[in-house]
Write a structure and sequence with these properties.
Shape: globular
Largest sheet: 5 strands, parallel
Radius of gyration: 22 Å
CATH class of the largest domain: Alpha Beta
CATH architecture of the largest domain: 2-Layer Sandwich
Structural class: alpha/beta
Length: 469
């Protein structure tokens, strides 16, 4: 009788080619995404006079350094930034890769475009020189970020040596309360297990709350797996997955679809599969969340208060908390809802999809913002859909800066969208590290609905207290 296996194990075994003496496995890679920072890998590839082994499996999409105010020369931060974008385009054309160019409406953030186009599929292994590649696991793929030398190896061979991670299952039981979003769920998970809680593991998210999520919401969950220290995050494919993928441009068609779906249905973890670690979280305990420190694990319900380092008995931990407090400009015992905010960012590979924009619009409708806010769509197609639904009119009427071009934007602050030194930003992105959104920037991670509510009031506000239109 076959040994019970998890979703992760099924995919790993199917892609294993051989194992070396160090215990690493040579894996076949199904999909490879490249953005502007892949230039190191292409330099290595061309310097060794090698070609891309499978250009049809490689997708080049500029997103990190592309400006969101427009794509004219004047919109770029500087010539170096523009050169990085052009370098990716040149490498893609030279190697005949699938290129989503600047004038392509499909272009946007890689981790938004992949699922949207049906490039991301269950049972595949997907890599990219970006840590948030874990996003694609929402569709039942094994997806993870890799470094420049690994990018070059994949370009040249379509394979990659990897040590096999451990497995972990996070089960979210019960039912979400009204006003609690997928972003709140993943922030609560990270707060529960810690920023290193998933280190060395691939996390499979399971349970009734996860199963009830839309694909857009599942992408948010898996996106932030890396913030829990995990190698990857995954959600088993189901009817929601198949419905989402059907008829997307790169998805199988006709008889190939039937064959693919039959395979996908074999992927979910066997009922008696064992995991190296199990964690359970009750959804009833989750509220709208706000990060307060410089790690995603520094998170509290919006009704909470900033912790007091003086109550910490571990002196090393006390020093860490004091540093976080100093950087963020907060005081012990301060109420989260009393924290005033300078600006709002809604976007990034975590929360820039159509459902995220709808959530923001439901709060902003018939209201006016009191602090600067920008909303950046995750792709050109999302922007077009938002405008077709009239969301742009709601944003503009509220006073929001609705950006015309998709991209990573203020999440990482390298394309002209950044937070000024000492300013406080309510952000729907995934990282609140020191300087992440700009030198001296103070970042608080929240959901799109919470960000929109904050934009209206100018301070963190429990979205459940605001009537959603």
């Amino acid at each position: 009788m076959a040994q019970p296996r998890s979703l992760f194990e099924k995919i790993w075994e199917r892609h294993s080619i051989t194992t070396n003496e160090a215990g690493q496995t040579l894996l076949f890679i199904d999909r490879h995404f490249c953005h502007e920072l892949s230039f190191h890998a292409f330099n290595m590839l061309h310097g060794n006079d090698r070609k891309v082994r499978h250009p049809e499996r490689t997708f080049a999409i500029p997103d990190h350094y592309t400006p969101t105010t427009g794509l004219d020369d004047a919109d770029y931060v500087d010539g170096d930034t523009q050169a990085l974008v052009q370098n990716l385009i040149n490498n893609a054309k030279r190697n005949k890769l699938n290129l989503f160019g600047l004038d392509d409406e499909r272009r946007g953030i890689i981790h938004v475009v992949g699922p949207e186009q049906g490039i991301t599929q269950p049972g595949t292994i997907i890599v990219c020189g970006d840590s948030h590649t874990s996003t694609h696991g929402a569709l039942g793929a094994l997806a993870f970020g890799i470094g420049a030398s690994d990018v070059s190896h994949v370009l040249a061979t379509q394979t990659l040596w990897q040590p096999k991670p451990k497995s972990m299952r996070v089960t979210v039981s019960g039912k979400r309360s009204i006003g609690v979003t997928a972003k709140d769920v993943i922030l609560a998970i990270i707060g529960h297990i810690g920023a290193a809680g998933g280190t060395g593991h691939v996390i499979e998210y399971a349970g009734p709350v996860i199963e009830s999520l839309s694909v857009d919401e599942r992408l948010t969950i898996c996106n932030m797996s890396i913030e829990a220290g995990a190698r990857a995050g995954m959600i088993a494919p189901d009817e929601e997955t198949y419905s989402y993928l059907r008829d997307r441009p790169f998805a199988p068609q006709g008889a190939e679809w039937e064959k693919a779906e039959s395979f996908w249905r074999s992927l979910p973890s066997d009922s008696d599969a064992e995991f190296d670690r199990e964690v359970t979280l009750d959804a009833a305990s989750i509220e709208p969340m706000v990060t307060w420190g410089t790690s995603p694990e520094d998170v509290l319900p919006v009704g909470g208060r900033i912790p007091d380092p003086a109550l910490e008995t571990d002196t090393k931990r006390q020093d860490i908390l004091n540093r976080k407090m100093d950087y963020m400009g907060l005081t012990p015992g301060q109420q989260i809802s009393d924290i005033k905010v300078d600006r709002v960012f809604i976007g990034s590979c975590t929360n820039s999809r159509i459902e995220d924009l709808r959530d923001a619009a439901s709060i902003l409708k018939n209201r006016t913002i009191s602090i600067p806010a920008i909303i950046v769509p995750g792709s050109g197609l999302i922007r077009a859909q938002a405008e077709q639904e009239g969301l742009d009119k709601i944003f503009e009427a509220a006073g929001v800066d609705w950006r015309p071009a998709a991209g990573c934007s203020m999440c990482i602050g390298v394309n002209g969208d950044f937070v000024n030194n000492g300013e406080r930003c309510a952000s729907t992105s995934n990282r609140n590290f020191e300087g992440r959104q700009g030198r001296g920037a103070r970042t608080h991670l929240v959901s799109p609905a919470m960000a929109a509510a904050t934009a209206v009031t100018g301070h963190f506000t429990d979205v459940r207290d605001m009537e959603q239109n």
